Amino acid sequence: MDTEIQYISYQTGKIREKVLTENLQENFSKDFTFVSLDNNNRVCSREFLSHKEEALGEMTDFKHKFQHLFNNPKSPLYNYKVFLSIGSTSTQGWKINDDGSYELIIPPNGDNPFMMLGAKQSKENLFGVPELIGILSGLDINSNKKILCFNAIGYAIPKTYKPPEGKIPNIANITDNELEQTPLISKLNLQLSIPDTTGKLALIRDNMDIYSRNAVEPTTNSKIEGSWASGLAIEKKANIIDIGGGAVHIYEANTGKKLTTTSLVYRKGPNIRKTINPNELYFPSKPEKTTDELVQIDSTLLDHISLSLHMFIILPRLLGGQKSKRRKSKRKRSKRRHR
């Protein structure tokens, strides 16, 4: 890794919800240091990921992966111009403008109910559907400007689903009878079936489709989705450390490539390494931790990440040096045998 490239860590998981909803940012340290390849202490900033940055990262990664499908007039997906990434507990959204540029639409400026609008939320806790429809009503939705929903909402499409003849594989309209009628899909259908004089609601309903979460897009062999960490690594030209709820991963600056195949680990004792699992550290069991206790746990977590990051950076160099020495040793033994 280039030692000049900046490192930025963003944190999600249960602790993010607590910190942001209770305005506890000032209680938690924002930076930590680690030792880089040049043996200097380097500072890595730590932020709790905002909804807007999450959406920006997802949109950037989505564009990087899939613009050849949605900006190409010859693609069967070309007419999709509005995209809703509806995860388990939140929604992000963007659109493609007439000039081919991408623009965020969710979260909007001002009130933001979309951190609580998700595919797996119960009927009682379902907020944001009227606001979502309000945003879509202002976008002139039609058959040439369709909506594609993806992410966790795509689990509503059964694995055995077969689209009607002539339709695109892995895609179903929200009115399709074969969809699992989750609280969100049911409420969308109900709200969009209300008669209105403008006809906008019917146009939204008829042009609002879902991409199956169980399928991969064939030209890229990947799921239709956007990774906020990958996108922010591209957008900010920095190595991004994703401190999630159950794991910690690193994404490469400029390319957005995921550099870790498994979560970072820390030493729990001699010859014992344990996966860094933030949720387990912050919330191991009841009773609920006080803010002061959580702050202490937070410092421990950042210490684990600091040491693990140092080893992640230097280990390839150490192993590379060992391999080089072994190769030289083998060549010397080979020369002796041939003398």
In short:
It contains 8 helices and 13 strands. It has 339 residues and is an alpha/beta fold. The chain folds into 2 domains: 7-48 and 237-335, no CATH class; 52-211, no CATH class.
Verbal overview:
The strands form three sheets. The protein has a six-stranded mixed sheet. Strands 2-3-1-10-11 form a five-stranded mixed sheet, sandwiched between helices. It has helices spanning 13-21, 51-70, 129-137, 183-192, 200-206, 228-236, 278-282, 291-337; strands at 7-11, 31-35, 41-48, 80-86, 91-96, 102-106, 146-150, 171-173, 208-211, 239-243, 248-251, 265-269, 272-275. It folds into two domains: 7-48 and 237-335, no CATH class; 52-211, no CATH class. The radius of gyration is 24 Å and the shape is globular. The chain contains eight helices and 13 strands. The chain is of the alpha/beta class and 339 residues long. The model is unreliable at 321-327 (pLDDT under 50).
Helix content: 25-40%
Low-pLDDT stretches are 321-327
Q: Could you state the oligomeric state of the chains shown?
A: single chain
How would you sum up the global shape?
globular
Q: Approximately what portion of the residues adopt beta-strand conformation?
A: 15-25%
In angstroms, what is the radius of gyration? 24 Å
| Main β sheet profile | 6 strands, mixed
Provide the structure class.
Answer: alpha/beta
Q: What is the end-to-end distance?
A: 42 Å
User: Strand order across the biggest sheet?
Assistant: 6-5-4-7-9-8
Instruction: Provide mean pLDDT, rounded.
Output: 88
- Tell me how many strands there are: 13
Q: Output the number of helix runs.
A: 8
Order of helices and strands: EHEEHEEEHEEHHEHEEEEHH
Number of domains: 2
